[in-house]
Structure formats: structure tokens, C-alpha cells
Write a structure and sequence with these properties.
Strand order of the largest sheet: 9-7-10-11-12
Structural class: alpha/beta
Shape: globular
CATH architecture of the largest domain: 3-Layer(aba) Sandwich
Largest sheet: 5 strands, parallel
Radius of gyration: 20 Å
Strand content: 15-25%
Order of helices and strands: EEHHEHEEEHEEHEHEEHEEH
Number of strands: 13
């Protein structure tokens, strides 16, 4: 039984509404994997009914990400600024006479939407499926509150020693969105702890490699492997050495010998 608080009564709507609220507010992962596919599934409806009420997350922390999402929506004939957004809190209760809730799981993006997003990015940001793979990218989550890759300096040193003659070794931090697409479009290997940066698998190409480092509590979290398999990206996963590590643990630490055994197996020295 759901208890409706007094302050939630105002969230009862008497007209049709579309529910585009995502679980994790409007971060990079939720916008690309959940929110955007929902919008694309309603393209025909939104073109003919731009004034229909749309429920969307209230959190406005990630405005930068919307600067990336909006051109993709516009590419399919919808003008985002003309849509009738109602920003709400995720945990509020809301009901309507007609509630349209598109099916687009936050963890497993349907293949048809992967194709649509890659097609739009190809045309907007000059994404090229035939790019020469020249980049090795590491996201160590430096400065993040959780899952910081504490061995990142050792990883960078070894990558530079092995591959700097043939690849650009990149510390993924703050780049604009066009640069991000270009970097991952030419990425041969991506190493990252579990987090929203792994959403950039969307812009990698078949034949590239991703290594995800996960805390022990996420041993069954395979949704980035699903995304990789849909594109043809080779996926590997390492669990952190700390058996008590969780999604909110401060540090990720792994067996580097095993990590580089996998790297060398896939990227041969010339």
C-alpha cells in the first residue's frame, strides 16, 4: 500500500501526462540510457502533441549533459524548448487519468535505440564507425566521492611504457561533448571503475575493448556488458580486491598483473 502525503496531493493530474522521470536524476548515464530512448519512442506523439505535459526530473545539476541530449532529440524532428516539461522530485507520488510511461529500462537500452542514437551522433558530431582506433582511455574517477581507482598512476605508467609509441594515453576527465565523442570514437581500450562514464561505450566501435572495475557488491551488475555486446565491443570485468567494497566505497583496487595480462592479450606490441 502506498501512503500519499499531504504535500503529494498536488501531484495528481487531470490530463494525460508522459512520465520521463529517471531513477538517478539527470546524470549522463540516465539521460542517455533511459531518458533519451523514452523520448525517441514517442517521436510521433511529441511531434503532433508538443504541449502534452511531460514529467521530468527536477535535479538541474547536469545542464552540460542536456546540451548533448537536445541536439539528438532535435535531429529526430522534436524541438526540446517547445516541449511542456514539468520538473518534479523523483520520490514524489504522482497520478494521472492517463499516464504514458515508455518502456526503456535504465540498465538495458534496447538495440533499436542504440542504433538510433549512434546514427544521430554520426550525423551531428561526425561520429565514424570506420575510425582508426588510436586512443587508450582511463577514467580513474579522480576527485569523485566513490570508486576512485587508487592504482591509476601505476596503470598510466605501464600503459605509457607499453603503448605510448602507438596510442594516445588519455586521462578521461573534463572534455566538452564533441571531444568526448571523438575520443571514444577512436578508442581502442577503455579502463574505468563502474560509473556513468562507461556510458561512452555508446560511441566506441566494434573491435575495441572495455574493462570495467566493479566493487564486490555489484558482482551481478552486467548492464554495461550488455551495452558493449550490442555494439561489438569486447568486454572484461574485474571485481575490486576488497570483499566489503560497495557502490559507495571510496577506493577501487585490483590485481594489476591480471589487468595487464588481459590488456596484453588484446593489444599486441609492435
Amino acid at each position: 500500500m502506498i501512503r500519499v502525503k499531504k504535500q503529494d496531493i498536488a501531484m495528481i493530474f487531470n490530463e494525460p501526462v508522459i512520465n520521463l522521470v529517471t531513477l538517478w536524476t539527470d546524470d549522463y548515464f540516465s539521460l542517455l540510457i533511459s531518458y533519451l530512448p523514452k523520448v525517441l519512442s514517442l517521436t510521433k506523439l511529441l511531434k503532433h502533441n508538443p504541449k502534452i505535459m511531460i514529467l521530468k526530473n527536477q535535479n538541474r545539476k547536469y545542464i552540460r549533459n542536456e546540451a548533448f541530449i537536445d541536439p539528438i532529440i532535435k535531429y529526430f524532428g522534436i524541438v526540446p524548448r517547445k516541449l511542456n516539461y514539468i520538473h518534479i522530485e523523483y520520490q514524489r507520488i504522482y497520478m494521472a487519468r492517463i499516464m504514458i510511461t515508455p518502456i526503456a529500462n535504465c540498465k538495458y537500452i534496447p538495440n533499436q535505440f542504440i542504433k538510433l542514437i549512434r546514427k544521430a551522433v554520426h550525423n551531428i558530431y561526425k561520429f565514424d564507425i570506420n575510425s582508426t582506433l588510436t586512443n587508450i582511455i582511463v577514467d580513474d574517477r579522480r576527485g569523485a566521492k566513490a570508486r576512485y581507482l587508487s592504482q591509476s598512476y601505476d596503470i598510466y605508467d605501464e600503459l605509457h611504457l607499453l603503448y605510448s609509441k602507438d596510442y594516445n594515453i588519455i586521462n578521461y576527465s573534463q572534455y566538452n561533448l564533441k571531444q568526448t565523442v571523438d575520443m571514444f570514437n577512436r578508442c581502442k581500450l577503455f579502463i574505468a571503475p563502474h560509473g556513468s562514464s562507461l556510458t561512452n561505450i555508446l560511441f566506441m566501435n566494434p573491435g575495441s575493448i572495455v574493462i570495467e572495475i566493479r566493487p564486490q557488491s555489484l558482482h551481478n551488475a552486467w548492464y554495461f556488458s550488455y551495452l558493449a555486446s550490442q555494439i561489438g565491443v569486447k568486454y572484461y570485468s574485474f571485481l575490486s580486491l576488497d570483499p566489503k567494497a560497495t557502490l559507495y566505497s571510496n577506493v577501487c583496487k585490483i590485481n594489476l598483473n591480471k589487468l595487464f595480462a588481459i590488456v596484453k592479450e588484446n593489444i599486441h606490441l609492435k
